[in-house]
Specification:
203 residues, alpha+beta, 6-stranded antiparallel beta sheet, two-stranded antiparallel sheet, globular, T6SS immunity protein Tdi1 C-terminal domain-containing protein
Length: 203
């Protein structure tokens, strides 16, 4: 279990100790083993167990319709949060959601926690982690990211920003999510093309 994940990121830890009878047990052991660690200069990172509730709450601030439904476990370089979805169950295993603060979108990933790490990331890392875009960004930002940093959009895509390197900047992830959450809630339900003025941010 998690052998391919470890091989993909050249992790030396013995991954076969991570076993469990259900997703809760597997996730707990995964985060106990790898929580708080960064892979490939910040392409992908896993939360610590103590940070899971914090990020559940941060995500729910932006997407309140998911209250009581998610368990966040990891995030990528763009600050996108990955979570177990307890309302989408396949073979008794919760499936994955990806929350995108820069686009205000929530994407369903049809796999469980083990499949996500052992299949989705090794085989489809560009689709789920935007690895090619990350490669472009690191070519001009070789130092990578600290555990609390992400690369955010200067102008959010849901506000008309462009998905280009020029529209990216390194950000504190808590601050970035706080700003995105407020913008998402203030613009929720507005017709496309609406001009938004006078937005202020609370502390």
């Amino acid at each position: 279990m998690f052998e391919r994940f470890c091989k993909f990121f050249s992790i030396n830890e013995v991954s076969n100790v991570i076993k469990g009878n259900n997703s809760v047990e597997v996730l707990s052991k995964l985060l106990n083993t790898f929580g708080g660690k960064s892979f490939n200069k910040g392409l992908y990172r896993l939360h610590t167990l103590s940070d899971v509730e914090k990020w559940n709450n941060n995500v729910i601030q932006a997407f309140p319709e998911f209250n009581g439904r998610i368990t966040c476990f990891g995030y990528d370089w763009l600050g996108r949060q990955f979570a177990l979805d307890n309302q989408r169950i396949e073979n008794e295993q919760p499936q994955i959601l990806m929350f995108e603060p820069g686009t205000a979108e929530v994407l369903e990933i049809p796999c469980n926690i083990v499949q996500f790490h052992d299949e989705e990331i090794p085989e489809y890392h560009d689709s789920c982690l935007a690895s090619e875009f990350f490669k472009d960004w690191t070519s001009i930002n070789p130092d990578g990211l600290k555990i609390n940093e992400c690369v955010g959009y200067k102008v959010m895509l849901f506000l008309g920003g462009e998905d280009t390197l020029q529209n990216l900047e390194k950000s504190d992830m808590d601050v970035y999510w706080s700003i995105c959450s407020q913008l998402i809630q203030k613009t929720n339900g507005l017709p496309e093309g609406t001009i938004v003025k006078g937005i202020g941010f609370s502390e």
